[in-house]
Structure formats: C-alpha cells, structure tokens
Input
Amino acid sequence: MKRRSSFSRFKEKMIEKFFLLNGLLVVFILVGIFYLLLNESLPTFQEVSIVEFFSSTIWNPTGYHQQSYGIVSLVFSTIVVTVGSLIFSVPLGIACAAYLSEIAPPKAREVLKPTIEILAGIPSVVIGFLGIVLIGPMIARLFNLPNGLNVINGSVLLGIMALPTIISISEDAINAVPDDYKKASLALGATEWQTLVKVTIPAALSGIIAAVMLGMGRAIGETMAVLMATGNAPAFPKSIFSAVRTLTATIGIELGEVAYNTTHYYSLFAVGLVLFVMTFLINIVSDWVLNKYEEAE
Output
C-alpha cells in the first residue's frame, strides 16, 4: 500500500513537470521568435532612419533612383482591412452563435455546427479564389468600379475566415450562462427575445469579447487571402475602394525574391517585428479587458 502511494506521488510529480516543461517550451518558442525578428531587424536601421521607417508613407525598396522604407501605409492598410473584417464578422458571428445556442432546433444545430467547423478548415488560398472570381466582380458591378480588388474585398474574406472562431467561442460562452438567469428573467415577465438580448448575451460578454479578440488575431495575421484579393498597392488608402497591401502580404510577396543580407532583406524582418508587436499588444489588451470585466462582475 505504501509502495503504491509512493508511486502515485512520483507519477503526479512527473505529470506536473511534464506540463511545466510544455509551458516553458511555449515561452521559449515565443521568446525565440521575438529574438530572431529583433536580431534580423536591427541591421535595417544602420541604413534606414528609424524616423523614416515609422513615419513615411512610401514603401519602395526597389526604387531605381531612391529606395524608401516607410511602413505607415502598410500598417494603416492592415488596420483598415482588419477593422473592416470585424464590422462584417462580429454581428454575424454573435447572431449565429445566439441562434445555435438558444433558438435552433436540435436537427438544425446538428447540421449547422459541423458546417461552421468545416469552414474553419478551408485553406486560405481557396478563400482567396472566392474573392477573385465571386466577391471581387460583385463589388465591381455594385459600385461601378474597374475591379473589385480593394479594402472591402479583403475585409469580407477576412471576416469569413474569422467567423468560425467567433461563432464557436461565443456559442460556448452563451451555453455557459446559468439557466437560473434565463428562468429568473422569464419569470419576471420578459420575453425570450428580451432575455436573450438583455440577460444571456450580457452575461456571456467576457467570452464573446475573447472570441472577437481571437477573431481579430486570426484576421490580422492572414496572408494569402489578402495577398490575392486586395490589389497589393503599397500606397496610403484613400477610401474603402482603394487597393491596399498589408504587412503580411508585403512579407509574403517580397521575401521570396529579395537578395540575402541586403537592407531590403532586413527591412522585411523589421516589418515582421512590427506585426509581432501589434499581435502581442492585441492579446495584452484583450487579457486586460477580460480581467476588468470579470472584476466588474
């Protein structure tokens, strides 16, 4: 009996160390990625002014007379396309999650839930084709434009790609709301619609915020779909009908063609570092918002 107890304690300690090792490995990988990006980015600023890099709107590393390395247009284009994708995906995703959780009959849920999960597995290059052959021409015809490769097209595609994340996590958050909340609301005379809008969704708001933040992270880091559907013009966008190029698309287009150990090569790592910091800040802000909301509850 004593021998079995010692073996159980040893097994628990080994399991504890195994999980600790996995956690440390994730931290090590994250720090390693940051170090790689920082180390490869620093040579950029021996040739390029850091003020120009973060304040100029002109990105033209292959200019014949003068090369320019300003990333303002790329950062702004990334933000515009990401915000556009959230405007499209957040209302649709939350409404779909509420329907699946509270309204849909079991048979409809059995069909819709796997369909949404399959949507998450579609490769981004296929979504990009959808933007070129379907959504782009529709936008061009609707707004009388020469082509549909612009901010709206990229936003719709990124919104489609963020939908499965937002729907799945929001649905879990709504399902986790205690039934007592809903029964109390109905007992006080509220309709099912009023209960859903004024009780259930506010009670699940912390999970829904987490879903939106994860969807934003999915959108801001996407490369192939925006590369295929936004026109890839490295200029400052003047409207939602302008062609744009995001940070990820710039790296995707240029890194495979650039000569090694050149300023252009190192500047692409600097672009990657900026993208890494933006994503990191989004995660920090989302954690802060969640903690504040949970404290308020």
Q: What stands out?
A: The first strand starts at residue 59 and ends at 60.
